[in-house]
């Protein structure tokens, strides 16, 4: 992926996320007016693609099952992207501890880990879809998937717009450092953890 385009997209998502803080509640109300049972079912299915417990392990498993030549490399990068995203997203969630648009916290586990800001689904979707795009060169498929996962989070009122925009930015930055720049590999080599 072109470095300038990627960094511009990450900055755009970040700046748009910051700007959208002022209109988060209005966007949430607008989204609630579009809800209908059929679209709800579709959005729940789409949102599960970005789920740490459903979609993400499935993606890694599919790579391991169907990739012939670069199976270990791709799976390793995907796992690193997931781990770094978990750390970054959950540290921010602990610090910010923002309620979700529905007024509460949805899901299982402790409240702070499930706070709204930033969207882990958006971060995971953008970093993993970018990783897959890096190896398979299908930008339309992968970025459309990431955008749909992010949109589904706002549609389902599980996140505010700013949550998904900044989560998307985090995902792109994590992808860049793990896959494009291979910072983890370079650090491990400099510490003599790997050869």
Task: Give a written overview of the molecule.
The protein is mainly α. The chain has one domain. 72% of the residues lie in helices and 0% in strands. It contains 9 helices and no strands. The protein has helices spanning 3-20, 24-33, 37-49, 55-66, 71-96, 120-136, 139-155, 161-180, 183-190. Helix 4 packs antiparallel against helix 5 and helix 7 runs antiparallel to helix 8 (161-180). Residues 105-112 have low confidence and may be disordered.
**Number of DSSP-assigned strands:** 0
**Are there runs of 5+ residues with pLDDT below 50, and where?**
105-112
Average pLDDT number: 79
Q: Which class of secondary structure composition applies to the elements?
A: mainly alpha
Q: Helix share of residues?
A: over 70%
Beta-strand percent range = under 5%
What general form does the structure show? globular
Order of helices and strands: HHHHHHHHH
Please, how many helices? Answer: 9
User: How many separate domains?
Assistant: 1
Radius of gyration over C-alpha positions, nearest whole angstrom? 17 Å
Distance between the termini: 27 Å
User: What does the largest sheet look like?
Assistant: none
């Amino acid at each position: 992926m072109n470095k300038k385009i990627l960094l511009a997209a990450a900055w755009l998502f970040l700046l748009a996320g910051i700007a959208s803080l002022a209109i988060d509640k209005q966007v949430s109300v607008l989204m609630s007016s579009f809800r209908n049972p059929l679209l709800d079912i579709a959005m729940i299915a789409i949102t599960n693609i970005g789920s740490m417990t459903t979609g993400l392990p499935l993606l890694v498993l599919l790579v391991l099952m169907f990739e012939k030549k670069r199976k270990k490399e791709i799976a390793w990068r995907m796992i690193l992207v997931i781990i770094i995203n978990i750390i970054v997203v959950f540290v921010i969630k602990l610090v910010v501890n923002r309620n979700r648009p529905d007024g509460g916290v949805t899901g299982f586990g402790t409240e702070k880990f499930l706070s709204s800001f930033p969207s882990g689904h958006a971060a995971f979707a953008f970093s993993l879809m970018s990783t897959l795009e890096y190896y398979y060169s299908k930008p339309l498929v992968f970025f459309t998937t990431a955008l749909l996962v992010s949109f589904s989070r706002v549609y389902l009122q599980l996140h505010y717009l700013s949550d998904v925009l900044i989560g998307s930015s985090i995902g792109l930055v994590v992808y860049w450092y793990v896959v494009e720049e291979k910072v983890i590999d370079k650090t491990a080599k400099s510490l003599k953890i790997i050869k």
